Structures are given as C-alpha cells and as structure tokens.
Amino acid sequence: MTVVSLNPSPLLTVYRFAPEKDLQVIETQAPADIFPLQQPGFVTWLNVDGIENQELVETICSELDIHPLVVEDILHTRQRPKIEPYSTFLFLVLNMFSWDADSRSVDQEQVSFIVAKDTLITFQEDIKAGKDVFDGVRARLQNPVGHLRLAGLDFLLYSLIDAVVDEYFTILDKYGEVIEDLEEENLTNPDTGTIERIHTCRRQLFWFRKSVWPLRDVVVWLSREDVDWISDAARLYLRDVSDHVLRILDTLETYREMVMGLVDVHLSMVSNRLNDVMKVLTIISTLFIPVSFITGLYGMNFVNMPELQWRYGYYVVLGVIGVVLLLMLWYFRRRKWL
Amino acid sequence: MTVVSLNPSPLLTVYRFAPEKDLQVIETQAPADIFPLQQPGFVTWLNVDGIENQELVETICSELDIHPLVVEDILHTRQRPKIEPYSTFLFLVLNMFSWDADSRSVDQEQVSFIVAKDTLITFQEDIKAGKDVFDGVRARLQNPVGHLRLAGLDFLLYSLIDAVVDEYFTILDKYGEVIEDLEEENLTNPDTGTIERIHTCRRQLFWFRKSVWPLRDVVVWLSREDVDWISDAARLYLRDVSDHVLRILDTLETYREMVMGLVDVHLSMVSNRLNDVMKVLTIISTLFIPVSFITGLYGMNFVNMPELQWRYGYYVVLGVIGVVLLLMLWYFRRRKWL
Amino acid sequence: MTVVSLNPSPLLTVYRFAPEKDLQVIETQAPADIFPLQQPGFVTWLNVDGIENQELVETICSELDIHPLVVEDILHTRQRPKIEPYSTFLFLVLNMFSWDADSRSVDQEQVSFIVAKDTLITFQEDIKAGKDVFDGVRARLQNPVGHLRLAGLDFLLYSLIDAVVDEYFTILDKYGEVIEDLEEENLTNPDTGTIERIHTCRRQLFWFRKSVWPLRDVVVWLSREDVDWISDAARLYLRDVSDHVLRILDTLETYREMVMGLVDVHLSMVSNRLNDVMKVLTIISTLFIPVSFITGLYGMNFVNMPELQWRYGYYVVLGVIGVVLLLMLWYFRRRKWL
Amino acid sequence: MTVVSLNPSPLLTVYRFAPEKDLQVIETQAPADIFPLQQPGFVTWLNVDGIENQELVETICSELDIHPLVVEDILHTRQRPKIEPYSTFLFLVLNMFSWDADSRSVDQEQVSFIVAKDTLITFQEDIKAGKDVFDGVRARLQNPVGHLRLAGLDFLLYSLIDAVVDEYFTILDKYGEVIEDLEEENLTNPDTGTIERIHTCRRQLFWFRKSVWPLRDVVVWLSREDVDWISDAARLYLRDVSDHVLRILDTLETYREMVMGLVDVHLSMVSNRLNDVMKVLTIISTLFIPVSFITGLYGMNFVNMPELQWRYGYYVVLGVIGVVLLLMLWYFRRRKWL
Amino acid sequence: MTVVSLNPSPLLTVYRFAPEKDLQVIETQAPADIFPLQQPGFVTWLNVDGIENQELVETICSELDIHPLVVEDILHTRQRPKIEPYSTFLFLVLNMFSWDADSRSVDQEQVSFIVAKDTLITFQEDIKAGKDVFDGVRARLQNPVGHLRLAGLDFLLYSLIDAVVDEYFTILDKYGEVIEDLEEENLTNPDTGTIERIHTCRRQLFWFRKSVWPLRDVVVWLSREDVDWISDAARLYLRDVSDHVLRILDTLETYREMVMGLVDVHLSMVSNRLNDVMKVLTIISTLFIPVSFITGLYGMNFVNMPELQWRYGYYVVLGVIGVVLLLMLWYFRRRKWL
C-alpha cells in the first residue's frame, strides 16, 4: 500500500486499487498532486471533502471536463437526490443525514457522485471533523483480499451508497425516540409547547421523507437500467439497497401516522383537562351557592321574621343545609363526577 | 413412512415425498443429518425452526450455495414481504402473525422461503413451543393419497402460504373484537385512556396492513409470471390466496374507517359531557345568584329601610324569590335543559 | 311452455329456451330431475335458491365438473364481486342488497354465476320468501317474442346482472333518506346518539361501496374482453350497466362527502350550544355578582358606617344598583349577547 | 334563407346549411315536417326542445334508427357526461347548468347529442322560456360568410359544446360570490346556519365538479381519437375547449380548498367567542367574589368582633377592598385579558 | 451593435443576433418598423411589452399568420401554463410572479411565447415600469462572445424560461417569511385574525402551486420530445430547469404541510387559553365560595345562636376559614393548577 499523505487535514483523497495490486492512497490539498487521475488497470476513487473551496471544485471539474450544470449542482447544495446520465459520465446526488443531539433534529449534507469509466469522484458538502460515513468503506479497501478490492467500480459505488443509506436507519431510530418522548409528554404534562414539538417533529419527518423518496428512483435506475458497467453481482446488492429504502419509507409512513395520532391525543387530553377543571368548579359552586342562599335568607333584617325567634331555628337551618349538601353529593356520585 | 426422530425438540425437520412412495421424515438438530438434501424423484421440504442459532442457518445456506444477501435477510428479520428471484433459486419472505391475548396485539414472526428445484426450505423466526401454523400442512402430508402428496413442490408452497394467510383472518377477527370493545367503552365510559387505546389500535392496524400489502405482489408474482415450475392447477389455488389477501386488505380498510370514526365519536362524547357539566353549573348559578341578591338587599343595615318594618315584608320577599325561581325553571324547561 | 312443478317451494328452477321453441320450466328439489342440464339447441338457466343445503350444491357442482375452489367460494359467502375465467366455464360473484326497514341498513346476499357453453347456473344465498330480484327476468322469459327469448345466453346474463344493479338504486334512495333524517336531527336535536348514527351510516356506505367498486371491473371485463360468446349487441347493454355502476359510485362518493359534512355540522352545533349555555351563565353572574357585593357592603356590622345613618342611603344604594344593572345590560346588548 | 315557422313555440327546429347555399330553417311541432332529415350536400341540425313529450322523442329516434339504450339515456336524465360510439352514430351527453338566483344554487339540465353523417340532433331537457345557451350559435348560423356556415358538422358540434362549457364560467363566478359572502358572514356574524350554508355550498361544488370531470374525457375523445369526420382545424378548437374544462376543474379545486378553510375559520371563530364569553365571566367573578367574602366577614353577628368597634374599621375595609380590586385588575391587564 | 430606438418607452423590442455578427436592437411602438421580422442567418426575438393594446397584438399575429385561438389565449390571460404545437409554430404560456410587499401576496402576469423557425415572440401581460425579469437575458445578449449569442434559438428560449422560473425561488422565500411570521404570531398572540391569515396564506400557496404544476409538463415536453430544433446541449439545460420546478413543487408541498400544522397549533393554543381562563375562574370561585358560606352562616339573625356569644367565636371562625383556604390551595397545588 502506497500512502502519500501530503497534509494533516487533507481535502482530496485518492484511492487507486486493482485486484492483486497494491492500494495507492494520496491525501493532499493541491489538485496538481492527483492528476492524471486515471491509471490503466486501476479503479480510482477521488473524495473531495468540503466544497467550501469553490475554486478547487471548479478546477477539478474543468480538468475532468464536467458539464457546468453539474458543477453548479455540486456547489449549490439542497438538490433532490437524482441521477443524471451525461454522455461521458453519470452524475448522482444523494443526501446524507446526521443526528444533531442538541436540537434533536437532522443535519443534511449533500454528497455528489461522478461516475466515469474506472473513476469515481465524490464531493462531500462538509469537512468532517471526526468520523465520516465513508470510513467503513475506506477500512474495507485496505483489505487486499476483500470483496471490495477484488470487485470493480460498481461495487465501490454500491458500498458508498449503502453506507449513506445505512446511516438513515440511525436517524429513524432517533426519530422513534423523539416520538416516544412526545407520547410520554402528551400523557403526563401536555402544554402548548407539546403541540409545537409535535408539529416540528412532523415537519422534520416530512423533510426527511422528501429526501429519501427520490432515492428510490436513483437506486432502481442503477439496478435495472441496461448499465453495462454494473455487474449482475453488484445489481443484486443494489436491489438490496432498494429494499432498505422501501423499508425506510414504510417506517416513515408509520411515524407520520403516529405523529398524526399524537395531535388527536393532545387535543383530547386538553379537552379532558378542561372537563376536569369545570367539574371542580361546578361541584364547589353547586354545593355552596344554594346553601349560601339559605344563610342569606336568615341574614335579612326584617322585623317580623318568626323563624328567627324560634328556639331551635338555627339548628333547623343547619340541618336543612346539611341535607341539601348531602343531596348534592349524592347527585354528583350518581353522575360519576366524584 | 420413515421417521427418523433424532431429538425430542428438533430444530430441523425434513420431509421427502413423491407420489406412490413412502414419506420420509427426519427430525434433528445436526445439519449433517440432512445432507444431501435432494434425492432424485423426491420433493424435499426442510423446515428450520428458530433462527437464533445463526451458525446453523449459515451452515445450511453455505451448503446450499445461498447468496450472502439472502442469508442476511433471513437473519435480520422485520423484512417487508417480498419475492426475489436469484439465478438458481427463488427467495420469499412472509410475515406470520399470532395474537397475544394479554397485550391484545399481534406478535410478528418472519418466515423465509427458499424455493429451488424440487426443494423448499423454510426458516421460521421463533421456536414454537406448542402448535405451529404449518402443523396442518404436516398432517396433510401424512396422507399418502392426499392432493399434497400427489402434487409437487408448487402445491406444497401454496399450502404453506395459504396456512400463513389463513392465520390473518384470525387476527382480523381479534381486531374486530378490540374495535367493538372500544366502541362500547367510548359510549359508556370514555376517558383519556380511551383515546390512547384507540390510537394504539389504529397504529397496530397500520402495521398489520403494511405487512399484508406487499404480500399481494408476492402472490401475484407467483401466480402470473411465467414461472414454469408452477402448474396451472396450483396457479388457480394461488389466485385464490390472492383473493383472500384482497379481502383482508378490504376489511383492514373498513377497520381503519371505523377507528377514525371512534376518534370523532370520542371527541363528541367529551364535548357533550362538558356541555352536561356546564348545564348543571349554569342552572344552579342562575337559580340562586339572583335570589341571593334579594336576600343580600334586605340584609343591609340601613337605618331607614321601610320594607323591613312592614308586617308582611318577609313574606312578600319570600314570594318574590319563589316567583323568580319558578320563572327561571320555566326558562330552563323551555330551552330543554331540564 | 312446459312447466314441470315438482314442489311447492322449489329449490332448483330450470329454464330452457330457444327462439321459436317452447319455454321449458322445471321446479324441483331433487337434483336428479334436472340432469342432463344441457339440451342441444337450447339455452339453459338453472337457479339454485338458497345454499344452506351444502350437499345439494356440491352434488350439482360435481356433476358439472366445477373446480373445488369455486364450490368453496359459492358456499363461503362474503366474497368480493369478482370474475374468474376457468378453462371450461366462467365464474362470477355479485353481491345483492336488500333494504331492511327495521334496522335501516342493508342485508347483503351473494349471488354466484357459473357461465358455461349454453348454460347459466346461478346460486342465491338466501331462500326468498316472497319476491325475488330475478322475478322480472323470469316474467320476460315467458314472452315468446321477447328479446330475451330470441337472444342467447349473453343477453340472459346481462338481464340478471342488470336486475342486481338496478336494486342498488333503491338502496341508494334509502340511504339518501337516512342522510336527510340525520341532517334534520342534527339541526333540531343533536345528541351523542346522533354522532353514533352518523358514523353507523358512514360505515354502512363504506361497506356498500366496497361491494360495488369491484363490480366495475367485472362488467368491464365482460364488455371489453375478447369474449366471443358475448355478441356486440349484448356488449352495448353491458356498457350501459357499467355506466350505471359508475353513477352509483358517483352518488356514493357524494353521500360520503355529505356524511363527513354532518360530522362537522354536529361538532359545530355542540360548540354553539355550549356557547349558549355559557352566555346565560355569564349574563346572570355578571349582572348579580357586582350588585350582591354592594348589598354585602352595607350588610357589614361596623359601628361607624355613616352611610347607614343617611336618611336616603338605602335609596341611593338602590339607585346605584339599578345603574350598574343597566350598564351591564347595555354592555351585553352591545356585544350582541341579548 | 328559408324559414318555415309552423308554430309560435316550436319544439323541433331544423337548420340545414352548406357553403354558398341558403340557410333553411324549419320550426315545427310535428315530426312529419322534418323528415327526411338529410338532404344531399347539406349539414342538418335538429334541435329538440324539451323531452317531456316522450312519444315525440321516441318517434324521431325510431325514424333515425337510434338504439333503444340511447333513447333511454335521452329520456332518463341525470346521466354522467359521456361519449358512446355506436356503429352508425356517436352519442354524447353533456350537462348544462344555469344559476338559480333565489336558491343560490345551480339547475342542471341534460343535453344529448346524436352525431351521424352530416346530421346532428340535440335534445334539451327543459323547454326554454326565454333565452337559450344555443342562441349564440343560431345567430352565427345566420351569417352566410361566417366560419360556422362554411365549415361542416364538426365545427357546429364544437360550437355547441363550447356554448355549454362557456356557461360553466358564469356558474363559477356565482359560486365565487357565494364563497365570499360566506367568508364575510363567518367573520362578522357566524352562527349555526353558517356552518350549514358552508356545507351546502361544499356539496353543490362537489356535484358540479362531478358533472364537469367526465366532460374532460369526452372532449379529449373527440379531439384525439382518429375520428375522421373531425377536421384538424376543428380539433384545434376542441383542444381549446379541453383547456377550458381544465381551468374550470382547477378553479373548482381552489374553491373546495377555500370552503374547507371556511369550516376551520368557523370553528376557530366559535371557540374564540366562547373564550370571550368566559373571559367576561371570569373577570367579573374574580373581581367581586373575593371582596364579597370580605363584606360577608364583617356581616357576621359575633358579639366579640373588635374590628367592628374600631373608629375607622369601615374605611380600612373599604381600602382593603380597593386594593384587592386593583390587584386583580393589574393581573388581568398583565395577562392581556383587558 | 445597431440600436434603433424609436421611442423612449417602447412597446416592441426586436433583437436580431447571429454568431460573429453585430447585434441589432430595434425599440419602437409601430409594428411597421419591425417587419419583415426574419432576416436570413439571424435569430430574431421580438418582445411585446404589455398587451393592453389589443389591436397591436392582433396586427402582429395576423402578419405572422398566428391561429386565432392563440391570439385569444394571448389576450385573455389567466391561462394555465401549457405548450401547444401548431403546424408552423409552437405556442407556450407561462405565468410570471412578482411579490407585492404591501399585500404580502403575489401578482401574476402571463407571458406567452410563440416559437417559429429562427424567431421567438414573447408577449408580456403588463408594461414594466422599472426592472423586468428578462433584463438579465438582454444584458447577456449584449456580450458578443457569450454563450447566448453563439447558440441559437433554443438557448434563448431556455434562458427566458429559466429567468421566469428563477423568480419563483424569490416568491418561495417570501412565503417562507410569511409562514414564519404566522408561526410567531400563533405562539405569542393568536386571535381570530390569525386563522384568517393562515387560510389566506394556504389559499395563495394553493394558487401558486397550481401555476407551477403544469409547468413541469411544459419543460418535460421541450426537453424530451423529438423536437429537432432543440440541441442536445440546450436539452441538458432544460432538464436542469425541470429539476428546479421539481424542487419548487417539493418546497410548496412542505409549506402546505407547515400551514396545515399552523391550524392545529392555533386551535390548540385557543383551547389552552380557554383552559387558563377557566382555571383562574375555578381557583377563585373554589377558594371563596365555601368560605363565603361560612360568613353567611354567622351573618344570620337567629336569636339563639350560641356560637355568636362565644368569646373567641370570631377567631375560631377566622381559623376555620384559614384552614379551608389552605386545604384548597394544597389541592390546587397537587393538581398542578398553581
């Protein structure tokens, strides 16, 4: 294995490999170091990490004769996943997602693939500080007898796409947790913030789904079309990726249904709490308003009110009040309010 | 019939049968006992019960030259039902359901089918303690003149799929009961738990439907495609299964509509109960607040209040109070609140 | 016309007719009486009334070499409407509906058709006490110069399907009445039962629609497919039936929309009634609580309360109370609560 | 121009025209006057005004050898718009709408077209008292050098369909006004009647849309199918009609969205009004209930209540009451209730 | 470059260009100045600014032999975006949008394109006071070595369509701001106006989407159909426009979902506020109604009420009232109302 590491934080990484030959790795920041990209008998993978340096991207693309529209799509991210065949190369855009634990939402990053004869170029939107979703593929490339080294460009492309799609399952799990938390919050302590959080989650799932949906066509295009440079073996693997995408979409559909349910449950919770509040008010008012009327009656200052002179008038009134209260309580009990 | 039972709780069961020949049954835990799997002139069915022992599954699959992706799908369950043709075999995934009476929900189990020439291998996810959905097929295999013994692999495959689909009708019935119970609860004693239970039910139906939906394509693929090893006779039976799947989906659609209706009824019930509570409060307050004002009036301590000196002032006030109360009651009666 | 009536309440009725020949009618309970079913040059229609007698159905089917799956479908009702071509015959399932005036819902009955060369067999699920939806067809068969007698099997099949579909319009009218009653009830006296009835209606319409929907495919299959035994003339008539089915589905769609609207109106009615109740409470409380405070003020027993000694203190207070009440009433009037 | 007007309020109107020939117009009530309908070299348009006289319709149709099913469709109105090719003619059904200003809803009328070689027959459901949607076409027929006279049957058919579709735009405008009125009513004075009117409007739009929807297929059929009697020039015009139909459907879709929005706004208005009512109640109760308690306290008749003897006790209490009231008002102000 | 500016505010602008030739620009108000439009070897673009002058439009169209239906579509705006091939030219309608900052809604303007051999005519609905969406294209035409000058008619057409579609992104951003403002308003100060504004926004998005939706078909038609005058290079660029349209539709879908969410959040906010109001009422009433009853009790004027004579009766009662109040407060605290 030849590793030419020209820079501690390289922007450009080239991997060249062929069955039974040494793996060549070049890590550099200068485009000059990597040309000519192709070497006869080798498969070349150039990864460009971070597209902030527009000039660099444009240099590489112009060197390789890439159509200006493609360069534009690489630089202006937020593209939908898509596959576009050009006469000399194939252009692929995918969206990579990573979970941001603080905001409990996903960060989106665009990865563009240019697939030409024996050459694959990938452009990643952000410069990765630590780990990268492609690290696994890099590690497997080191293995001289691994399937990846022995197979050709098609299998490398599959491995990278698969790495991107596998990350989606992690995102799905995170959203599963968010939904469970919302369900918990809904039942124990629903407030106005809850409905907001529910809708934020709903919107994020919607965005996520929109990025996954066109991916299906991309993978189907690769695995079905008469693309002669994709072997039947790799096609089986791509069919497997297509299957994963379907499962992700299925799960997203279920999540959406669950989030819709959360809204209904929330509204029902709020209504029920209103009912509880109103019941307390009604019980207290209904108990004391009538008996207060009685006390008011005998608080009047008429000269001629015979009951006031009765020896046990007060006790009779106390009794009447007690009976009224008991009747009310019995009524509430019967209506199951207590 | 030759039965070689090598273990009381076997993991591997092999059935070999052909018209006018003895049925061979092997029950074992050692893969070695079952190879070579195929015997000329016989149809072989190998059932692997429980896939916890990954090594065992991998051993069998490598022996039979099964693609690694298929092995992965067998071991990592929660696949969508699907059918995938490979060059030397056909791979099928179905989901089996059983009703868990305690949680009133379904348990899902994946069954994977590998169909090769004269050989069928089935992998069941769980080890069945007692009964198995395939027991009926096993019993019918015992009958030397039964249709199953006389027909070939296609009819065996149909019988197993049919056994899985027939179980779905049981699940449907159970969900029908759950919905009826929820309707009952909704009308007699709706609370916050009710809306939760309604949504749990809705979600489960959604999951269930998602497992049944792709099954349609699987069965249609088998019954329509130019699969030469499926006879016209078996095709008719598969069409019947396809019909069952449609009926299940129809019923699920209706259940979903019913559950959606439950939400509306629940919200209406809660609103109506709030109305009832408010009516009681309003009646009591409206009856006694005005008359309390009157008593309050004559409870004032002004020196010069001629009414207080009237001989029958007290009785006049009592009369006025009575008239006010009666007017109020008449008003409530007219508005149909009483 | 030859009528051989072997039994007052026959289960089996055979009609044999051909242009310019006498109509033969056999009514019997014994299958033996009707075989051989076919007679050269005649079109034969066998109607089996009630499938409770399973043995009878199985006897007839085995005599005519009907596939076991078809027999199963005939006996296990609740099939979706469908059309299934077999090598020697065509199998058709329709659902017949009749209105049950007591429960205000429909009763469903399955009619199975087996169409073979010059022979039509119909199986009706229930034994009809009085009138039968096919009576009209029977009457028209009596007419020796009627179109039905002169045309062949295709026109007979059309007439029977048409008779079934025409009944659907009656059902539609009944549901129209139910919806109108619900609208009336909603506006005059909505209660919890109303929302329940609305949802029952909604569910029934859903069921009904599900039975009509696949019928479209059945009729389209008959009228479009290269079915050589259906003449162009009959095809025009079948196209007409297809048109009727579309109109029924259209109307059902509108009914559904109307029922959905009923739910909204109901919830709005309940909310408005709550508003009414609350307004009464608020008006009464707002009128009397402040003035009660004033009376309470002068009911205090302080030794030094100069107003109490005023000659016209009482009248001043009465005036203040009057002014407060009038202000409140003016406020309510301005807010349009009165 | 030859006009043979045999009756002041004719039922049957025949127009015969050809380029460079005189226009022949016959207005009559007797079918005998119009036969033979066709004249060599002329295009003939027969309009039948009102189909109440069934016998007349049947006479005409039998004379022209029209299929009984078509006659039935002409007489039993409420058909969906449709196009049906028969061997010797083409049958078309359209729905015409006119706005009823009193009920603010549309009146539907069926127009049936029979298009044969050089002959067009139209059946209008109602006898028009005053103006007719076809009057414009009639006027343009009078113009000897107009496009309509010079072109053939295809252009006449287009002109009539166009006249029908153009009326739809008037209806759309009317519904636009109804929706605006409902929006106004919703915001100023929503009551239970409002939600009813909203749903009536929604239902009517639904009915209207259902009549327009199939029209699209009709026009597409005419403009695309290899109908050799429609010239390319007329086809362009039919494409234009098809475009109008699409615009009508688009607008209907928007209206529907707007009406759905009205329901949401209505429910929100009702809720907000409830909130307003409750706020008034709460403010009044919260202001006076606590201070009434204070007055009640000093209205007690205990012998030993030192405060009662205080010289300025009364004024202290008045001060406390004032402070409590001010605190409450400040609290309401802070919560933005005032 | 030849610029013939015949008028300070020209209605008609002609651009004629060809590779390696001078750009000719004519600005005039008289149609006579621009004919003959075509010059051999040049590509001609005629822009008509404002269609108020119907006569002018009709003159130009008749000169160029444009079909009357097209003229009608140009003059009667509010067409759906569409593409219509005629025998000698292609007719295109697009909708241009500009943001009206005052009403916070979009203004729609129709642009019609007539594409003939080497000639492009554009009709803009309004006379632009200041800037025009086509200004960028005009500027690029000035550049003698720019791609636009060197390429032909196809690239000019693409540039104009692209200019229109790029404006849509500005509109999208504006709507994004409106939705954010509504979200803010919803959470801080929701009132009846809020729900109205939400629905106005929803309706506008719906209208906007309806104008964008058919645009997809237009662009797809141009880029896919065997239109021989569009070069492969231009086709790639049109594919890019098609991609933009898809992204706009995706974003609109998300906006719609967000607006739907706003309605739910609004209703939840209103309910929660009602809950808050009710809680305050209930707390105050529940605290003071019972203790007011106690004071009422000892305000009665019975002669024989021993407690009144107790030395510490008053203090006992004060204590009881304090205990009741504390109990109530504890209860509210436990229910998390305080």
Question: In short, what is this structure?
Answer:
Chain A has about 350 residues and is of the alpha+beta class. Chain A is about 55% helix and about 15% strand.
Overall 3D form of chain A? rod-shaped
> Averaged pLDDT of chain A, please?
86
What characterizes the major β-sheet of chain A? 8 strands, mixed
The greatest interface between two protein chains, and residues involved on each side, is: A-E, 57 and 45 residues
H-E string of chain A: EEEEHHEEEEHHHHHHH
Strand content of chain A: 15-25%
Oligomer: homopentamer
Assign the CATH class of the largest domain in chain A.
Answer: Alpha Beta
The portion of residues assigned to helices of chain A is: 55-70%
The chain-level structural class of chain A is: alpha+beta
Largest sheet, spatial ordering of strands of chain A = 1-3-2-4-8-7-6-5
Give the N-terminus to C-terminus distance of chain A in angstroms. Answer: 80 Å
What's the helix count of chain A? 9
Report the CATH superfamily of the largest domain in chain A. Answer: CorA soluble domain-like
Domain module count of chain A: 2
The tally of strands of chain A reads 8
> Which regions of chain A are unreliable across 5 or more consecutive residues at pLDDT < 50?
none
CATH topology of the largest domain in chain A: Beta Polymerase, domain 2
**Over the alpha carbons, how many angstroms does the gyration radius of chain A reach?**
35 Å
